[in-house]
Specification:
It is a single chain. The protein has about 425 residues and is an alpha+beta fold. Among the domains are: about 90 residues, Rossmann fold, CATH 3.40.50.20; about 55 residues, Dna Ligase, domain 1. α1 links the parallel β1 and β2. It starts with a strand and ends with a helix. The structure holds adenosine-5'-diphosphate and magnesium ion (MG). Magnesium ion binds next to loops.
Length: about 425
């Protein structure tokens, strides 16, 4: 098979590593890829979807896998399908589940899927009136894509009203905040649960936990994610059953009824309150760094999983996972997440090991050397028969990575090890 992966992060690198384990995967292409994916395949610098589809046809690409949300929201899957190409990733209509939080909340409401009580509005008055009915803390969310920065957990009604006002008048997030979702605060623990969907059928992956805050003990600002582990023992059979029956099944049925059949990754940001599952949000792609810990756990061939999902044949697949755990520790650059850092040369003592590897993200190559040129530079992934063993393997690998200003959290997977 020839496979094209759209994206440039650690997530796409991790998908590529999983595909590389398959004997039937012959060639990998990345659009645009990063300074390490060129060692796994060929980086292609084509941004326009029509031109990329032409390239896929010319090269006889068998399957395209889309990593990030932006091209999905912009309709890459629709363009590829128009050209009769096989693509794993949701259509533009289905991507609205991530592209608009107001659309997503209304969808959950229409289909009776458990979620926090809310309103969505573009009126300051309506926002304020609803805030007055809630008890602080109160959650205020910008409707559109904000790269993980569009959610304010306000400690008082006044703070919530201020946040809503500055979103609605375009100050905080431009057009993405011209509509807001105001919702009640749910007090529980969070899980990242992924379903691979083919429009009708689905396969649930082991539940993961992300670590959004920059610093140990969940302190400091929010980031794109500083680490993850899976499977988490915090998700029991009852939680998986609730997710299937009350979330995934009604979502696939609802999307089909509404003319936006769901073929792709459904990322359920779940909050568990008193053992009950609530949907905080949907994403229409893998989480990053969750993908980096899920891919190494796959026992089933990754190309078969994604190809069957893209072609509506997941019912033929018996998806299997290794009886192991994986922990991923994100190594970030000095000024992340505040501002871009100067590129720094990376020195890695990366001897191949059975139970750890690097997933490269914000890296580029200059004159044969690899440089850290992004916020989240790479992920040290460890696997093992226990979470502790996997974590030790991941942290052992961090000791072999050197670049100026490198930083990471020291407590990834603490929730499972307390
Ligand atoms: N209703 C809620 N109650 C409690 N915490 C929430 C609620 N909604 C969001 N959060 C917190 O804010 C984070 C970001 O919100 P989310 O809806 O996932 O938006 P995004 O990932 O697009 O920034 C969540 O991971 C969660 O920690
Ligand atoms: Mg989220």
């Amino acid at each position: 098979m020839k496979i094209l992966i759209v994206g440039s992060g650690g997530r796409e690198y991790a998908i590529a590593l999983a595909l590389k384990r398959d004997e039937n995967v012959k060639n990998l292409y990345f659009a645009p890829g990063n300074g390490a994916t060129d060692e796994l395949g060929v980086n292609i610098d084509i941004k326009d979807f029509e031109k990329l589809a032409e390239f896929a046809k010319k090269e006889s690409i068998d399957l395209t896998i889309v990593g990030p949300e932006t091209p999905l929201v912009e309709g890459i899957a629709d363009v590829f399908k128009k050209h009769n190409l096989t693509i794993f990733g949701v259509s533009k209509d289905a991507a609205k589940l991530e592209g608009s939080k107001a659309f997503m909340k209304d969808f959950l409401f229409r289909h009776n899927i458990p979620t926090a009580k809310y309103i969505q509005t573009s009126s300051v008055k309506k926002a304020n009136d609803f805030i007055d009915t809630l008890i602080a803390p109160i959650v205020v969310k910008a409707d559109g894509l904000c790269a993980g920065k569009g959610v304010i957990i306000a400690k008082s009604k006044d703070e919530a009203k201020d946040a809503a006002k500055s979103m609605l008048n375009g100050e905080s997030f431009g057009n993405a905040g011209k509509n807001v979702v105001i919702e009640e605060f749910l007090d529980g623990f969070e899980l990242s649960i992924f379903a691979i969907c083919d429009g009708e059928n689905y396969k649930i992956l082991p539940a993961a936990q992300d670590h959004k805050r920059l610093l140990d003990n969940d302190e400091g600002p929010n980031t794109g994610g500083m680490g993850a582990y899976a499977p988490t023992p915090l998700a029991n059979d009852d939680i998986y059953t609730q997710v299937e029956e009350f979330v995934v099944k009604p979502t696939l049925k609802g999307m089909k009824e509404e003319g936006a059949s769901y073929t792709g990754v459904l990322f359920i940001g779940a909050m568990i309150v008193d053992k009950k599952v609530y949907v905080l949000e949907y994403n229409v792609r893998f989480g990053d760094p969750e993908c980096e810990v899920l891919m190494p756990l796959l026992k089933t061939s990754a190309s078969e999983l994604f190809y069957k999902a893209a072609t509506g044949r997941l019912n033929e697949l018996d998806l299997k996972f290794k009886d192991e755990f994986a922990v991923g520790v994100v190594v970030a650059s000095k000024d992340y997440p505040y501002k871009n850092s100067e590129p720094k040369i990376i020195d890695i003592d990366d001897k191949k090991s059975e139970c750890s590897h690097v997933a490269y993200a914000g890296v580029c190559k200059k004159e044969g050397s690899m440089y850290a040129n992004g916020g989240r530079v790479l992920v040290c992934v460890g696997t093992g028969k226990s979470i502790k063993a996997a974590r030790d393997n991941a942290y052992d690998l961090t000791k072999k990575i050197f670049f100026e200003g490198a930083k990471f959290r020291n407590d990834i997977a603490y929730q499972a090890l307390k």
